[in-house]
Amino acid sequence: MPTMADVARSAGVSVATVSHVLNETRPVLPHTRQAVLDAIDELGYTPNTLARSLVTSRTRSIGLAVSAISNPYFTEILQGVEAGALEHGYGLLLADPHDDPVHERKVVQLLHERRVDGMIVAPSADPHELVSYLRRHDVPTVFLDRAVDSPGDDPPRFDQVCADSATPTAELVTHLAGLGHRRIALVAGRPGLSTTRERIHGYRYGLAAAGFPYDERLVVHGDSESAGGQRATATLLSLPVPPTALVTANNVMTLGALRALGERGLSVPDDMALCCFDDFDWADLFTPRLTAVAQPGREIGAQAVRLLLERLAVPDRPARTVRLACTFVHRTSCGCPGGPERSAESERGIVP
After folding, report:
1. Which string of b and e fits 13-36 if b means at least 16 CB within 10 Å?
2. At how many degrees (to 10) do helices 101-113 and 128-136 cross?
3. Which DSSP string do the residues of 172-183 spell out, in sequence order?
């Protein structure tokens, strides 16, 4: 197996120069750097990652803690994180906190003990212990998908990247109102999540923009799960005056809502108009095809990696929160006979 000394001899440089190229510990002239890289490629040299970490105090690894990995939306985020990490020469250690605050705290500690350089975390509905651990140990961290509020007037301590949730939800509501619906219900997500709060806010804003009063009976939490979406939809259908249109706040709750409607022999959109937050690959295969809000999952993941690498490079810079626009995907489950497949990003029209 070739050694670093073999690479140095082949490139005509010192072992120290090879080390600087590999570990990026000192600038190296471009032609010298290329000679080292050519020698590495020619000899098939594989750097000793453990040895490098002892020299640089970096393992070139990122810890990713994301729940519901089977959810297609989070799968897209994972793909974005992985691609971004590999592009910059980082490996990925993955853990599923199961949206449980206690388990979340444990898996983050385990990732930290494996000396990851930084973490990307989709926090639970109660991230108090998580935030406390990360702050106490000064772990470079980016929160994704779900934002964490800073206490009081404190400036943000962590970088965050997520999609805009309020504006697209308001757009779904006003779209349904424009089709003549007056009782529009929301199957909301898990209480405590920032995405749940923001989508409820967008729903209420959409109602107000359409001139409709808010009726708390038309908002039922489906806990961001398929079974919960099914229960929430059944509750809405049992109201003395059921809704005529439904907004579901994530993709798996949409599946639960469709099951509940099917159990009662109700069809979409003839008996119930339906719009959903989160587009997914097979949404276009349903009959009718699902009108949805598409989140930029891969870009959220890639942006989280960029923010983390910026944090590692400049540890003291102010924390940033990045909000990415969603896309309204207009199909037929809303009751429209057709329409463009995609509209402009949800930056137009209503702004809560």
Report:
1. beeebbbbbbbeeeebeeebbebb
2. 20
3. HHHHHHHTT-S-
Q: Which of 214, 199, 188 is nearest to 164 (CA)?
A: 199
Integer Cα distance of 205 and 308 in angstroms: 33
Give the rounded distance of the alpha carbon of 121 from its chain centre: 9
- CA torsion sign for 257, 262, 265, 269 is positive
Structure-token pair, residue 257: 């809502």
Q: Collapsing DSSP states into helix, strand and coil, what is residue 321?
A: strand
Residue 201: how many other CB atoms lie within 10 Å: 16
> Which amino acid is it at 295?
Q
Find the largest Cα–Cα distance for the chain: 84
Residues of the chain with pLDDT > 70, as a percent, come to 90
Q: Are 114 and 60 in contact (CB under 8 A)?
A: no
**Residue 292, pLDDT score:** 95
Interatomic CA distance for residues 248 and 122, integer angstroms: 21
CA distances (Å), 166 to each of 107, 197, 346, 351, in order?
30, 9, 10, 8
Residues 171-219 pLDDT 10s: 999 999 999 999 999 999 999 999 999 999 999 999 999 999 999 999 9
Q: How far apart are CA 262 and CA 271, in angstroms?
A: 11
Q: Of 123, 170, 168, 169, whose CA–CA distance to 149 is shortest?
A: 123
Edge-to-edge strand list for the sheet holding 118-121:
91-95, 61-65, 118-121, 141-144, 159-163, 321-324
Beta pairing class for 327-329 and 291-294: antiparallel
Q: What is the pTM of this model?
A: 0.81
C-alpha 145/C-alpha 147 separation (Å) is: 7
Amino acid (one-letter) located at 3: T
How far is residue 215's CA from residue 218's CA, in Å, rounded to a whole number?
6
Task: Note whether 292 and 346 are within 8 A (CB).
Answer: no
What strands lie across the sheet with 327-329, from one edge to the other?
A: 219-221, 184-188, 245-248, 273-277, 291-294, 327-329
